[in-house]
From TrEMBL:
Organism whose genome encodes this protein: Spirosoma validum
Domain of life of the native organism: Bacteria
Listed GO MF terms: DNA binding
Record's protein name: XRE family transcriptional regulator
InterPro entries from the UniProt entry: Lambda_DNA-bd_dom_sf (IPR010982)
């Protein structure tokens, strides 16, 4: 999953517009964020830092590398995770698991087909 996709997912999860998201980062217009979301620009370090400052509940590992949960759990009230955000974390994890299961099922199906084909090839006319 690309950072562009994760940013779009974050904006969707926060249930805000791209323009509102950009404004939270100190941008007057949403142009830069739109370009990032559509892959025309890659987010720079300062943009990523602004996201993490504006949204302290966002897990930096998830944002940068796609690892872990979208939101982190902290004792700090300024970064407290809500029940809704926890549910979104669980939904996101289920989405990731479903993607992995689908990929594993596809690989399994391909391997079974290959085994059947090899078995049929091994059974010649004289056998």
């Amino acid at each position: 999953m690309t950072i562009h996709f994760r940013l779009q997912q974050l904006i969707d999860t926060l249930n805000i517009s791209v323009l509102e998201f950009a404004r939270q980062l100190g941008e007057h217009r949403g142009e830069k964020v739109y370009h990032i979301l559509h892959g025309r620009l890659k987010p720079r370090y300062d943009t990523l830092e602004k996201i993490l400052v504006a949204y302290p509940q966002v897990n930096a590992d998830w944002l940068l590398r796609g690892e872990g949960l979208m939101f982190k759990v902290l004792d700090s009230p300024s970064a407290a995770i809500t029940t809704e955000e926890r549910l979104r974390n669980v939904e996101y994890l289920l989405f990731q698991l479903n993607e992995r299961v689908a990929l594993l099922q596809q690989t399994n199906d391909q391997l079974l087909a290959e085994l059947k084909q090899r078995g049929a090839e091994g059974m010649g006319p004289g056998m």
